[in-house]
Amino acid sequence: MNNKKKAIIACLVVVALLVIDQTIKVIVKLNMSLGESIRIFDWFHIEFIENNGMAWGMELGSKLALSLFRILAVGFLVWYIAKKIRSGAKTGFVVVMSMICAGAAGNIFDSLFYGEIFTESQPYYMGAPPAELVSWGNGYASILMGRVVDMFYFPIFSGTFPSWFPVWGGERFTFFSPVFNFADSCITVGLSLMFIFYRNDLNGDVFKKEKPVQNDSLE
User: Which residues are known catalytic residues?
Assistant: First the structure.
């Protein structure tokens, strides 16, 4: 497959995953109150939460610094994918890197725009209605300060740690407890596929001068 086709595939993967991610988030934001939960199965709930942090609800440092770091990270990923395409990377490697890029970009969209275009989501236990879409600048926060929307919750099973277990002995636990979104899934699946199938393509040549490809043979 030639490099032009690989570039088109990378763009299509990123756009398609971004559209799916943002569609899910907007539907949840406009139809659910904060903390509201919809049980699909015992092991799968739609549970609306928001967070200021990284993937899987983690938080690290200030919100502004995190948003700027995300933007720089996505810029680097776009540059790296383009570089690998020019140097003849495998199509599969380009696809999984595009998945990671799309996931990172999906959460950036929340930070960039949601604070500007949505009213603030209020707790479900207070009987609050869902957030509303408003004109630019009339939302709950300034640009780069919007909160990330999460909704997928998989409480696959629950149990109690045995009394002899260090630190958490006798305490209840749920597996799997984090609430996450589609963008987080893109990052996780992309990274998993990369390390399983394409770890040899991460050959430490990020800043090396790329060599022109002489033969665009089918892979």
Answer: 150, 184
